Amino acid sequence: MLMSVVAMLMCVVVMLMCVVVILMSVVVMLKSVLVMLMSVVVMLMTVVVVMMSVVGMPMSVVVMLMLVVVMLMSVVVMLNSVVVMLMSVLMMLMSVVVMMMSVVGMLMSVVAMLMLVVVMLMCVLVMLMSVVVMLKSVVVMLMSVVVMLMSVVMMMISVVGMLMSVVLMLMLVDVMLISVLVILMSGVVMLMSVVVILMSLVLILMSVAVMLVLVVVMLMLVVVFRCMWW
Fold first, then answer.
1. CA-to-CA distance for 223 and 217, rounded, in angstroms?
2. 60: Cβ–Cβ under 8 A, 6 or more apart, which residues?
3. 3-state secondary structure the chain
4. End-to-end CA distance of the chain
5. Cα 227 from Cα 230, distance rounded (Å)
6. Lowest mean per-residue pLDDT among 4-13, 170-179, 202-211
7. Coiled coil where (predicted)?
8. Under a CB-based contact definition with an 8 Å cutoff, are residues 70 and 196 in contact?
9. Considering the chain, what percentage of its residues have pLDDT values greater than 90?
């Protein structure tokens, strides 16, 4: 009887162990189902990340091309600014030449005025000689007429020189205004080149950010693949 009771208890224990094993197998099956679902989700995430990386690579290429175009534009703008600066230097040289021409005109007018003074003194001397030498009044009068004509010619030359100096001064003022405008334009062009360079730096930072995002995505892919491998 005791052996039959022990056998019955052992059967009950074995049945309970079978039930526990069945429950554990059910739990393992549920865990395997959850693992399968997680692997499916990870696969979908990897597909999405791969698609994002595939889309991000052409975008990075486009950004790099835009950066190259912007750098070329900045080089062209810098060359234009150099050309404008050279033009301003040429205009300044032209203004210096005009200034020298005006100085020469002023010197010519001074020389003409001195010649006029000399001629006037000669006229005075001739008049004194005409007063002293009454017998040679005809000759002296002719000489005085000639000298007066020469003085008129000199006066006309001096007037023309003065007018030329005034015209040259006006041309100098125009050239100086043009050179100031050219310098202002060169300053505007330099500001535009600085703006373009800042835009290129921003695009460089954007490309670096895109590359960092791609690196993060690749690291996430590596982590996901390692998780799937485990």
1. 10
2. 207, 210, 211, 214
3. CHHHHHHHHHHHHHHHHHHHHHHHHHHHHHHHHHHHHHHHHHHHHHHHHHHHHHHHHHHHHHHHHHHHHHHHHHHHHHHHHHHHHHHHHHHHHHHHHHHHHHHHHHHHHHHHHHHHHHHHHHHHHHHHHHHHCCCCHHHHHHHHHHHHHHHHHHHHHHHHHHHHHHHHHHHHHHHHHHHHHHHHHHHHHHHHHHHHHHHHHHHHHHHHHHHHHHHHHHHHHHHHHHHHHC
4. 55
5. 5
6. 4-13
7. none
8. yes
9. 1
Handedness of CA 103, 104, 105, 106 (dihedral sign): positive
The amino acid that residue 142 corresponds to is L
**């690196």: which residue's tokens?**
215
pTM assigned to the model: 0.32
